[in-house]
Amino acid sequence: MLHLILFLFFGTLCVAGAINLLAQSHPINSALSLIVVMASLAAEYLLLGAEFVAAVQVIVYAGAIMVLFIFVIMLLNAGQEERTKGSRIAILFGIPGVLIGAVLTAWTLLHHASALAVPIGVLPGGPHEVARLLFHEFLLPFEITSVLILIAIMGAVVLASRPEAVAKRHDDEQPRTMPELVGAGKEH
Amino acid sequence: MTITTFIVISIIKSIAVIAVLLTAVAYSVWLERKVSARIQNRWGPTRVGPFGLLQPLADGAKFIFKEDLTQPHVYRPLYIAAPIIALVFAITSISVVPFGNSLYIPETQVGSWFTIPEIDTPFQITDLNIGLLVILGITSMGVYGIALAGWSSNSKYSLLGGLRASAQMISYEVSLGLSLIPVLIKSGSFSLRAIVEAQQHLHWNFWYGPVWWAPLGALAFFTYLISAYAETNRTPFDLPEAESELVAGYHTEYSAMKFAMFFMAEYANMVTVACLATLLFFGGWLGPVFGPQLLQMVLPIFWFCLKVFFFMFLYVWVRWTLPRFRYDQLMAFGWKVLLPLAVANIVVTSLIVAWRA
Q1: What is the ipTM of this complex?
Q2: FRET label pair with B106: which of A101, B14, B73, B159, CA 20 to 30 Å apart?
Q3: Domains of chain A by range and CATH?
């Protein structure tokens, strides 16, 4: 009973955070609402019994990825967003799309509830179970995913790094107004 | 154990642990001032009480009665929330730290109408089987307090401090997490209690054992210790509040109790890191136990506190001995030295464990 109340509470918190994320006009407030969404999702996983996934959700999403979001917002010093009336395409396709999605989800849940439902607190989600799944049954997909992420990192490094020729030209263009400082810089 | 006993015991334990933690925080400030004074050949606090022992109380009173300035240019909701976030996350992580074996009180009759039921409870607020991950998660959330303080203060020094803090914590969190994995491989559990109990046969610490194991354990310990120093923003990693460049970094615009909350959060984080180092690498509460039953219950806690005290002292010692890193050195050290070392340690340790299995 207590589990069910907590589950509903965090579910409501999660949806409220998601709505607030859209409603806020300042990027920092939106990012903070996203953190609330992530943290309450972690609490939901924990209540279902997937404790390892819950901990990883907090460490990776709420604790690392969202810190990078906040970091970028702070670095760019992004200000208040301007309110626009929104594009016509969004209204034409978005609202029917949301409606169809909601109806499909409700229909699936109503007709296949017994096959999809997970009772609270019995999901086998401890570290041992997750590790066995990742490193025994799904080893190949797991390793392929890690290679994919490695390729993404390499791509980001290639895109972000300046080619050496450009860097050299850029340095040559710097005005040498303070010759004594330039001379001092050579010592390190 | 009935649900009422459980709730009463949990409340008592939480209050006791938080009281001890806050006292420890206050007295580590005193320790820091005394030891730094000793290192610099001066006296430190001497006026309030014997050896200045009441200085933390005087400081607390001063912080409460100081004027709480809120600059007009700050973003108020986050400016007020930031120190609370920092302190709450700093204090929460102590809830999964075990201090000793377990407390056992047999059923006793008090007066004629009240019976204390049989109590058998661990010296720990709650024993989770993912305790270590909970601590890592909570400390990774703690950076929001500092980052939001820097941003909401709306001043360039604070912003730079907040930016540095988030970049530094993200970088060193990676090597912090990876440096603990050899310990997990060796003990086979995320529960802090199980990790300590796995060290029972290793003579109270993790890198004692066969000769080839000691360097790996030592490497894991030092990578953990260095990244933990960076995570708690202590010298030589205190770039977020480098006073020679940024005035006071992220807490430049804070005064009175709000400043004190950041201060307490920093020291509470230090205590957590010291507890974790003790639990993971130095056998937690394990130590020589003898004497009557009461002494047998108290001695483990004494050993635990002694080890934690050693790490707190080490913190102060390092702070007043080493100069601060340059920012590029900080990043290069984290990513190019600590991270490869931690990863290499994981590979070698798991190879040895797999080979011996």
Answers
A1: 0.77
A2: B14
A3: 1-80 (1.20.120.1200)
Which pLDDT value is given to residue B64?
87
Contact criterion met (CB < 8 Å) for A70 and B151: yes
**Domain layout of chain B by residue ranges:** 64-356
Amino acid letter for position B218? A
Within an 8 Å CB–CB cutoff, is residue A72 touching chain B?
no
- Alpha carbon of B90 to those of B34, B94, B135: distances in Å? 24, 8, 10
CB < 8 Å to B143, chain A = 63, 67
Task: Specify the pTM.
Answer: 0.81
User: Residues A105-126: pLDDT tens digits?
Assistant: 888 877 776 666 666 666 777 7
pLDDT < 70 stretches in chain B:
1, 111, 201-212
| Angstrom distance (rounded) from CA A6 to CA A57 | 18
Residue B227 exposure: Cα atoms within 13 Å on the Cβ side: 30
Structure tokens at A65: 């990825």
Check CB contact under 8 Å for A63 and B151: no
Q: How many CB atoms within 10 Å of residue A105? A: 10
Q: Determine phi and psi for B105, rounding to 5 degrees.
A: -120, 120
